[in-house]
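Handoff note, outgoing to incoming analyst
You'll be picking up this chain. Sequence as last confirmed:
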Amino acid sequence: MTKSYSLKVANARLGGFPRLLLRWKASIYKLLYKEMAIFVGLYVSLSITYRFALNDPQKRTFEKIAMYCHQYSDLIPVSFLLGFYVSIIYARWWNQYLSLPWPDRLASLIGCVVHGADDRGRLIRRTMVRYLNLSAVLVMRGVSTLVYKRFPTMTHVIDAGFMTIAEWKEYETLESAHSKFWVPVNWFCNLAGEARQEGRIRDDFAFKSLMEEVNVYRGCLGMIYSYDWISVPLVYTQVVTVAVYTFLLSCLM
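Most recent structure output, in case you need it:
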């Protein structure tokens, strides 16, 4: 979870950044305190066992095992694996943010190139923007838990004004094994074509610019959907997990 802390360090003052170490929400302490408690508990148990439960020959055997673990623990490339894995996760997280679709640019372009002060012109512009928002909602319902709680069913999407009943019936007639977030984008393109035929989009250059922007928007939606669909390869996570836990077990000795 990303937690903003910019206001805490907005002013340069004594101890500004060290105070961040005391934050609990979204901190490394909150993430790892259970594993740390288990590690400390095992370490204390082994220490007590070595000092009070073992006889001298058993202590010598334990010491040999501890020396062996200490000698070969350096062969585990923990720093390399963690650096590689963290770089992948960070790049993936940041690229997901960059792929978030923003309808503002398209909405501004629609207001510039789709002309008409009558009811029909206003309806076309509003419907275009509604289709953009509808496609984003359809993607985010499958990605974000908060969005899904807000729109658990398509009835909630209709009640919120993103889709009409007639559009929902047409939407349901399309069969697809995956998300159909692209359907409102197709409706957008069809409506833009009608606006061009009616002369509300006055030239082909404006129509081309509009189509290019909606393709960029649709590409962002596709990237968000793909990031949720295709995870980091499981073998990467398994290798890092095995290496880290093996290193911790060797450190216990």
